[in-house]
Structures are given as structure tokens and as C-alpha cells.
Amino acid sequence: MVAKNAGMPATPADLVDIDELINKYYDLVPDPSIKEQRVSFGTSGHRGSSLKTSFNEAHIVAISQAIAENRAARHITGPLYIGIDTHALSRPAFQTALEVLVANGVHVRIDSRDDFTPTPVVSQAILTYNRADDGSQRLTGSNLADGIVVTPSHNPPTDGGFKYDSVNGGPADTDITNQIAQRANELLPIWKSIKRVPFDQAITSEYVEHFDFRKNYIDDLENVIDFDVIRSSGIRLGIDPLGGASVHYWPVIAEQYDINVSVTNSIVDPQWSFMTIDHDGKIRMDPSSPYAMKGLSDRLNNGAWDHYDLVGGTDPDADRHGIICPNWGVMNPNHYLAVCVEYLFGGNRPGWPAGAGVGKTLVSSSLIDRVATSVNAPLYEVPVGFKWFVDPMSSGIVGFGGEESSGMSFLRKNGKLWTTDKDGLIPDLLAAEITAKTGKNPAELHQEQVKHFGESWYKRIDTPCTLEQKLQLKQLSEKNVTATTLAGEEITSILTEAPGDQSPIGGLKVTTRNSWFAARPSGTENIYKIYAESFNSPESLKVVLSEANNIVTSALQA
């Protein structure tokens, strides 16, 4: 259900008290006996709010100590790169982490400008450090680097986040994060006894090195994006960083590569008072949400389009992107992913490995499947979470990885790794490259795909459930589904493992020739999510969703 104030400007009642948020970071102490106050690593690290005693000083002390112990046990002796976004809790958490890491003798690299650091920039820095002379990535051996990104990504201003990136440059796998979370929870009751170095001493210690994240990343961008074609076309690209970590990167990119890029809003405000409200009534900085981007869309439609040919956006840690086209509005992330696949695999990256595939999460649109077939690219379907693309991208099995929630990354022009985490900057730049090269913007290219591959309708709904039902859903098998048809079509597959890597999907996916649905439990709420798509009609999608709910309910009762 869409909130009544969705798309409306934030009011004073919507804004968080920043002083209270930071004070409670230090003042509230979690109770380890309460599940919601324990350390829990989801697909993107530990997230919570100091107001709910789920992201506080004690959590960061315990997690940082657990990371220091874990990397020592795995003999990681190189630098640990650490970056932060613009959320109010990110700076206090960064300071806490540095105090613990230095006390453990960890060599830490921080931004030389004391600036914000996008998530993909940390990934790119790790991969650059760990690259061998022949261009391959070192994953074993001595003197390897890893990293931490202090960010809750696009979450509301009340939240904080803390994510560990391993030596492969991407979000650490489940085995590692489980170890870190378990050890952190063991340490939580005794967090005050963990050794720390006062911040003013830690920041000037021999263990802290100042690193120019921005220059390292921007200098390297020419190896993944064709700036020559953007420059020669004169494409005018507007960028809304949504008050996030990429805000100071875009002017440098524009100047260094002599392209027409301008920032539509350079305000950094930890309350995000300039935002419009997202679909659920909260301030959420999601550049792919028409509700969160309503303010910018209105400005564009009221005359600002005179200054731009195309507009992109990034979220607070710049791992998500959004694309806005004239006479179209904010593109559905699935549609833009499909456009990127057709462009990248359609002869515009000749240096990529032969046979490199298209990576997609299993809840992304089947339009991507149809496009991949048309460009003779193998499809590699994985569970939800970008971490599932790390290994296939590292090995060259996948040239592009994308997810329905507007996250993607892809290989360098020479076929080597760029990042193994989502990068929100390169999709915005790629939109300009695509428009310059084809003479059509991504929305126009999507319309051509619709004519060729058919139009689809896609939706996600949330259904309340118990904790026991969430656990049941994770353990379902094909035998639990007795239905043979879905919305009048024969069921062609029932999946509990992802086709790409046979990893458990933590739920269920059912497909027909022209429709599918997937059900998986939420990692943070007592709900399960049903994603569905139909290439038949909007009415058919409603039937798919209704029958999907019945199928899941019956399976849970079996």
C-alpha cells in the first residue's frame, strides 16, 4: 500500500533529531538477550538505528574487534580501506571503528580529504591493491587488502550501517559474516573491556594512512566508460547525488574528462529535508523510486529539462543508480538493466571474454532473459544479493551483474574486473554513453525492446507471516508445491535453488512461459515478499499474485 504522503515534500514532522540520534549512539547500550539488539549481518552488513538500540557504540566496538580477529585468522595483513557515507551515524561509527582497529594493529587507509567515500570506490581500491602484475586478482597469499564501508545505503536518515568487504572487493560471503556476527555477539556483553585507542591518537598513529580515494577511482574510470563518445556528442547529463557520498566526485569527473555533467543538487543534509517521501511514508534516498525522485521530476518538468538531455542519480553510498529521461520519468530499474545488457553485449565491449554471461538476480525481470538470448549471452541467475555476483564476475563467467533494486556493475573495457560491489556512478555514465552512441536515450531503447520482446508488468507485494513461517519458507522444496498451472499457463519450473550457481534461494520461484513469481522471507521484518511478472497483461499479473499467495500458503501448510 502506498502512503498518503508518498511523493510529497518532507515536513518537519518527518525529520529526525540529529543531536538525539548521535547522543543515543553513545548513551544507549544494547541488551544481547533481545534479538533485535544483537549484531546481525544481512546481505549488506549490519544495519540499525541508535534510536532502537540496534546501531550503537557497543555494536561497532564489538563488530570492529570481530573483524580485526577474523582478518588476522585469515592472515590478511594488507591495508584495510574504510569509507563512509553522509548518514549522521556514519561519522561516529567510523571514529569508533578506527579506535578499535588501530588498537589491534590494523593498518587502515582513510580518505585523504576527510571526505565521504562511495561504496564502489572502496571496492575498486581493494581490487586495485590486490591486482597482480598480469591483471588478475590475487585472492590468496600475503599482503592482501580488505575494507569496511560505514553506510546503511538508501535507508532512512535514522539508520546506520557497517559492511565488511573481503579481499575480493565485494561484500564478504555468508561464512565470513556469520563468523563475524557470532564473535561480535560474544563480545557485546563485554564491549567496554575491548581495547581502544582514543580517536585523536588513532587518527595520527602509524597505523593510519591517508589515501586519495577520489583520484584513484576517477583516474581509472576511463577504463570502464567510453568518455570519447560522450564528449564528442555533447550530451548534457544532470546528476542528483541525493545528498550522498558521490556529491564531490561528479564535478571532478566532468572537469577531468571534459564532459557536460552538472550536479542538480549539491546539498548534504543528514536530515534529508529536501527529499520527497517514498512509497511507505518514510524518507528514503532511493534514486530509482518515482516517489523519492518526485521533487526532481517536478523541477525537470517545470523547465529544468531545458538544461539536460538525461538525468541520473545515486543514493547516499552511491551503490544504486536511477535514470530519468525526458517525457518518460524515472525508469523502472528492470527496464534499464535490459537496455544495458543489449548495449554492452551487442558489440560495444569487444574486449570482454568470449562467452561472458549476463548475471541477474532471480527476482529481476524476464525481459533480461529474452534480451540475453537475442545477443547470444548466457544467462546466470543467482539468489537475491549482489554478493552472489562476486565469484562469477571475478572468474569472467559474468560480464555484467544487475539486480532489480537498481544495483549493477560490469567489467572494464578490457574484460578485467572493475568492482565486485554495486556501482551507482558507472550506470549513470553508461546512460550518457548509450545515448551518445545510439542517438536514443534508454527510455526510447526500452520502447524498442517492448516492440520486439513484448511488454511486461511487474510488482512486489508483502504478506505478514510468523517467524516460524519465515523459517518454513526457507526450507521449502519442489514437493511442497502441488499446483500445475499459474494464471492459466502450465508451470514449467519450480525452483528452490538458483539456476546459475545452485545456491539456495531461501524461498521459492515458480515459472510459466510468460509469467513467474518468487517468494522469499524478509531478513528484517515478519513478512514474506512476493515478486511477480507477467508478459500477458496487467490483469494476468493480478491473477499471478493472487495464485502465488495461495500456492505459498498451501506450501507452508503442507
Throw out a few tags for this protein:
alpha/beta; TATA-Binding Protein; globular; five-stranded mixed β-sheet; seven-stranded mixed β-sheet; 558 residues; single chain; Alpha-D-Glucose-1,6-Bisphosphate, Chain A, domain 3
Q: Quick recap of the structure?
A:
32% of the residues lie in helices and 20% in strands. The chain has 17 helices and 23 strands. It has helices at residues 18-27, 57-73, 90-103, 119-129, 174-187, 199-202, 213-220, 227-233, 250-257, 294-301, 333-344, 367-374, 390-395, 425-438, 442-453, 467-474, 538-557; strands at 41-42, 45-49, 80-84, 108-111, 146-150, 159-165, 208-211, 236-240, 260-263, 310-314, 321-325, 329-330, 357-361, 379-382, 398-403, 407-410, 457-464, 485-486, 489-490, 493-497, 504-511, 515-521, 527-534.
Approximate helicity band: 25-40%
CATH third-tier fold name of the domain at 16-216? Alpha-D-Glucose-1,6-Bisphosphate, Chain A, domain 3
Backbone CA Rg: 23 Å
Strand percent estimate = 15-25%
Which secondary-structure class do the elements indicate?
A: alpha/beta
CATH class of the domain at 16-216: Alpha Beta
The profile of the biggest β sheet is: 7 strands, mixed
Number of strands: 23
Helical segment count: 17
The coarse silhouette is globular
Report low-confidence residues grouped into runs of 5 or more.
none
Annotated CATH architecture of the domain at 16-216: 3-Layer(aba) Sandwich
What separation lies between the terminal Cα atoms?
Answer: 29 Å
Adjacency order of strands in the biggest sheet: 1-2-6-5-3-4-7
Mean pLDDT: 95
Annotated CATH homologous superfamily of the domain at 16-216: Alpha-D-Glucose-1,6-Bisphosphate, subunit A, domain 3
